[in-house]
Design goal:
The protein is α/β, with parallel strands linked by helices. It has 2 domains: 1-32; 35-195, Rossmann fold (3-Layer(aba) Sandwich), CATH 3.40.50. 43% of the residues lie in helices and 15% in strands. The protein has helices at 7-30, 48-61, 79-84, 101-104, 107-125, 138-143, 149-157, 174-179; strands spanning 38-43, 66-70, 91-95, 132-136, 164-168, 182-186. The longest helix has 24 residues, at 7-30. The chain is globular, with a radius of gyration of 21 Å.
Length: 205
């Protein structure tokens, strides 16, 4: 008979889980504040935008109105845009870039597009009816200095009290990290692209 099912092991497991539950319950009890959050997904790993879109759909599932403004992206059609545009009354979607910076190769035009996208973002950051705003690849626009980080922070801090903002992209500036409530750094371990496997619909876009 497997020792994994012996009474002693089962009792130790029960006692360990009881101790863990007490710790978790105490943490849950101490966290009572409700407020709009700034969530940043950054780092070189895959999944930053995917996580952001997951939160958009999660918010929609709770009946919350959402908005998406994409910086940099916009030069190609994506699955998330195709899907979310099916729900125009629940989520507004704006892909306002022209593609990767190494493709556009026009800094002045990239700056103009970023400014246009930020103007659109500010509309939603001023609307208390919009409960969640995804600013996809905003970090890239800030890293490339297409937008002034201090102006962005000021607008974020002046948003409605209960509005959540998700910000994605590599190279999040420290100033933005400092004011955020939750920050995740996506760390790559393996990626199919490194083995010569092409980016594929449903996985990469």
């Amino acid at each position: 008979m497997s020792t994994d099912s012996t009474p002693d092991i089962n009792e130790r497991h029960r006692a360990r889980m009881a101790r863990k539950k007490a710790i978790i319950d105490a943490k849950i009890q101490s966290a009572q504040t409700e407020m709009g959050l700034i969530v940043i997904n950054t780092g070189n790993g895959k999944g930053k935008s995917s996580s952001g879109f997951g939160m958009v759909m999660r918010a929609m599932g709770h009946g919350m109105k959402a908005a998406v403004v994409q910086f940099i992206k916009g030069g190609m059609n994506t699955g998330e845009e195709n899907f979310l545009r099916r729900f125009p009354d629940e989520v507004s979607f704006h892909a306002m870039g022209e593609g990767y910076t190494w493709d556009t190769q026009d800094r002045e035009r990239d700056i103009a597009k970023a400014e246009e996208a930020w103007a659109k973002a500010k509309e939603y950051l001023s609307d208390p009816e919009v409960k969640l705003v995804l600013l996809d690849e905003l970090n890239i626009a800030l890293k490339c200095r297409y937008l002034d980080v201090n102006r962005v922070i000021e607008d974020l801090e002046n948003r409605p009290e209960m509005q959540h903002v998700i910000i994605t992209g590599r190279g999040a500036p420290q100033e933005l990290i400092d004011i955020a409530d939750t920050v995740t750094d996506m760390t790559p371990i393996k990626h199919a692209y490194e083995e010569g496997i092409v980016a594929q619909a449903g996985i990469e876009w």
